[in-house]
Amino acid sequence: MRSQTNLLVPLMVRSCMRESQRLSGCTSKQLLTVSDKNYDSVRPMGILGFSKPSEWNKVVSDAERIVGYPTSFLSLRCLLSDELSNVALQMRKLVGTRHPLLQTAKDMIHDGKHGLQTRGLIVLLLSKAAGPAPGMDVTEHDMVSGIFPSQRSLAEITEIVHTANLIHKGVVNMADLMPADGAPGDMEFGNKMAVLSGDFLLASACTGLADLGNTEVVELIAGAIGDLMEAEFTGFTDKHGNPTLPASVTFSDWLRQIYLQSGSLLARSCQAAMKLASHSTEAQHDAYNYGLNTAYVQQLSDDLAAITKGEYSDIRMTAAPIIMLQEEKPDTAQALLHQDKLNMKQIVSELHSSGLVVECRKLCDDYSTKAVSALTSLRPSDAKTALINMVHAIRRI
Predict the structure, then answer these.
(1) CA nearest to 201, candidates 172, 155, 162
(2) Domain boundaries defined on the chain
(3) For 45, phi and psi rounded to 5 degrees?
(4) Cβ of 328: how many Cβ atoms within 10 Å?
(5) SS3 for 17?
(6) Is residue 166 a contact partner of residue 115, using CB atoms and an 8 Å limit?
(7) Which residues, in sequence order, are bridge partners of residue 144?
(8) Which molecular function GO terms apply here (predicted)?
(9) CB 272 within 8 A of CB 222
(10) Is the CATH code 3.30.420.140 the one for domain 11-396?
(11) How confident is the model at residue 143 (pLDDT cuts 50, 70, 90)?
């Protein structure tokens, strides 16, 4: 896997910069350069799918300073490779269409839904907080800012896998195109770029994993990639990739879905970071639990935010409170969720009156407590404090 030292925006985004500027209002300088002086003001501020509250902004800024590494564009550096340059130059063909690949590229730079790359940051924080295993023979030259080079590579690999998955999810169903979506030829070309670009990133991640020289780490991340693929075939998405509610669903199904689509990658990456530093099985288990419970906290907070703030257009049918309604009050759910035209205001009112919003908030607090408890064995440090602050910030969003 090729590692670049500069943090220029990848060619894939540069080729559609004018359209990005028009839609986002960002200047070309903001799009093209991120230095140590200005990356705080340019990078997207989300948490695995959140918007950008000021508290979260500060938590991430502090965490990046602790690890000595601005992680916000971690996976983008792979896109600077020569192999993708020809694909990047063709991105302009998608400008003016509704192909998801264009929006994915812009979200990676602006404050889009999937912008800030916190998975790699969490891996680096855990690596620094845990340090080398007791009795491990290391010198100060073996680590940079308290983190092994292999752990930094793992953080980048984690983000590359996530980015590849986002790009692959952008392949559109050609059979359902509408005239407003753009010319069929351009959309088909966008699909080809999405498939090939995602494949290239996954290949780069696999090369990086091989370079780590640890077969157990390879197995962990390979399992996470498999889980990401399985998440697309569980009944929670329709043929267009949109969220849909299965006829018979339980909260356990929701937990399984979140594990597959986000929890597995974060949890396994955290465990792999400990394995690279030769930590005990117990320490690896704690790291895994931190990552998994943090993913649950994130998704519950995300689901609750749209409901409690009345952002009806952002409410997904697969949100945890709605799944609980389906499980606990199937008749009520049937009446509310299977109308010709959904009345989201009525659905939200029922979620509040039935106590399901409060129940989900309590679950969010419980998973937050579990995540923090998983860090108990770590010695006090700025990195450990940052990990705790991240969980609390996610819960409060």
Answers:
(1) 162
(2) 11-396
(3) -120, 80
(4) 15
(5) helix
(6) no
(7) 147
(8) prenyltransferase activity
(9) no
(10) no
(11) confident
> Which tokens sit at 231?
């998440």
CB under 8 Å to 44, separation ≥6 — which residues? Answer: 52, 72, 107, 108, 109, 110, 111, 112, 115, 116
Q: Which two tokens stand for residue 89?
A: 């130059």
> How would residue 59 be classed by pLDDT, with cut points 50, 70 and 90?
confident
Three-state secondary-structure class, residue 243: strand
CB count within 10 Å of CB 341 equals 4
**Which among 21-25, 30-34, 281-285 has the top mean pLDDT?**
281-285
Tell the burial category of 179 from Cβ atoms under 10 Å away from its Cβ (0-12, 13-18, 19+): exposed
What does the alpha-carbon distance between residue 56 and residue 317 come to, in Å, rounded to a whole number? 26
Other Cβ atoms less than 10 A from the Cβ of 133: the count is: 14
Backbone angles phi, psi at 128, to 5 degrees: -70, -40
Task: Taking each helix axis as running N to C, give the angle between helix 382-396 and helix 356-373, from 0 to 180 degrees, rounded to the nearest 10.
Answer: 170
Residues 235-251: tens digit of each pLDDT = 787 776 677 787 788 99
